Amino acid sequence: MARKTKEDALKTRQQLIEAAIAQFSTRGVASTTLTDIADAAGVTRGAIYWHFTSKSEIFNAIWEQQLPLCDLIHDQLSLTLNDDPLCVLRERFIVALQYISRDLRQRSLLQILYHKCEFNNEMTSECEIRNRIGFNYQNVRALLEKGLSKGIISPPLNIDMTLIVFHGFFSGLIKNWLMNSENFNLYQQAPALVDNILATLNITRVPPAIYPVAS
């Protein structure tokens, strides 16, 4: 019986987290109350206080359990680190954008991060959240270095500057798409968008199309 009670408590806690994600992404963090979250989760206000002492605590719990984007898309990748590094980089960027465009939970999380949150000292910082869930730029750096060493990317290439450009491109792209996802089809246009940003790297050859685009 105790085990069932513990399982039920964990289930309720997760229901509250999922309800908070939905409410925060729609209403905004500041405009969402604990009562809103409890109502959306179908539990009493007392039940939410059993698990969380404040809205900031449930906000932090959301990000504590969130996996990095590279882990979320891992099973959807066809290439490995032993393949052409430029093709690997291209595929990872494309699959990541397409995952964001199709996964409602991931989209809601990014909506909170980019548009629906005013941070305070009790909340996990925006920088920490971005470092936790975003692209792994150490992996990107390693792929660029490998591409240079294999002569796939034309030297000279300032990798630090390139990483800044990548970060600005993807952050701006996702932020603008979230403002109005009807402006363009992120899933279908992801390959072309990635190819355009890669074209700024002085690539010695254009990588082949390696990821099919849904019609």
TrEMBL record:
Keywords tagged on the record: DNA-binding, Repressor, Transcription, Transcription regulation
Record keyword Nucleus present: no
All copies of domain HTH tetR-type, residue ranges: 10-70
GO MF terms, alphabetically ordered: DNA binding; DNA-binding transcription factor activity
Keyword Heme: no
GO biological process: negative regulation of DNA-templated transcription; response to xenobiotic stimulus
DNA-binding region, residue range(s): 33-52
Protein name as catalogued: AcrEF/envCD operon transcriptional regulator
Originating species: Lelliottia wanjuensis
Underlying gene: envR
